[in-house]
Write a structure and sequence with these properties.
Length: 183
Amino acid sequence: MDSWEPPIAGTDAEHLIGALERLRMTFRWKADGLDAAQLQHTIGASSLTIGGLLKHLAVQEDNMFTVKFRGEPIGPPWDTSGWNGNKAWEFDSAAADSPETLYRLWDDAVARARRTVAEALADGGLDQPAAITWPDGRHASLRRLVCDRIEEYGRHTGHTDLLREAIDGRVGEGPPYGWRPVS
């Protein structure tokens, strides 16, 4: 069994993290192995690109688990990149990034998020409060933030599915057994 498959029977945390990992790896598989032109390919009237999605999801991993969960300022590479929380920036600026940069941004951000979540699960579980508060003063829980990541990856993996099929015909619900990123 590959590491991105959720458990057959596990704890709440194992199932939530497993669902997130399956979506992360499906997204990465759909985005993998593309050159600069392919990463900037659009379909129809949309300006959405796989390169933009890689950068968007990368910065949102750090925003979710560094800023919203830990309450810390966003760090490298975003603190010196021009990112200001405006989501259009990720999509617009990705066109100037090399494929290697885009893949590295996503891979590194996911690795940081995995470490943060693993540490948090070991130190209090899913119910611990995040730093972010709602207008009425309530704090979100780590569970809520993980569920938000699952929802966002579900949406953007669907976008990536359509874009990738238009680029080279790659289709499927997830990576084949044993798949590893090539880029």
